[in-house]
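A note on notation is needed here, since sequence and fold are reported together in a single record. The reader may check this reading against the record printed directly beneath this paragraph.
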Amino acid sequence: MAGFIGKERHAVDGKGRLMIPARFRRKFEAVASAGAGGEVSAFVEGLYILKAPDRSIELYEPFIWAGMRSSISGLSDFNPEERLLKTLMYESLETVELDRQGRIALSREFLEHAGITKDVVIIGADTKMIIWDPERLVALLQESAGRFASLAGRYF
C-alpha cells in the first residue's frame, strides 16, 4: 500500500487543532460500523507526534512507530549515549487522537517548537507526515536548493 505522498496547506485553529488532509486521513480514519441496536461505534487509534530536530513536527501511525519503538527499546540504559538518545526521543514524543472531524490537537509546546502560529504545510513523506511552518519550510528549501543533486547522487 502506498504511503503518505503529497503536500497540502492547512491552518491551525484558535484551539491548536489541525485538520489532517482527507487523503492522508483515509489511511487511518475511524472505521464506523453499525452495532446490533443500530448505534454507530467507531475505533479511533492514536498517532505518535514527534518534535523533530529540524524544528518540524512528525506524525506516525502506530504500526510505523512500533518499529521505531522496538529500535529505541533495544538501546542500553547503561550506555550514556544510548540512554541520552532514549531520553531525547521520549521527551519529544506524545500521542494524539483524531477527533470526529479529522483533527488533532497540537500542544502549545509542539506549536512553539515548530514556530507555528496559524498556517502549516503538511508533507506526506511515505511512512510519516511532516508538519512545517510555511516560512521555515521555504527558508529550508531555499538554503538547501543546491544540495539536491549531490544528496540524490549519494543515496540513489
Summary: The domain at 4-155 is CATH 3.40.1550.20 (Chemotaxis protein chec). The first helix runs from residue 22 to 25.
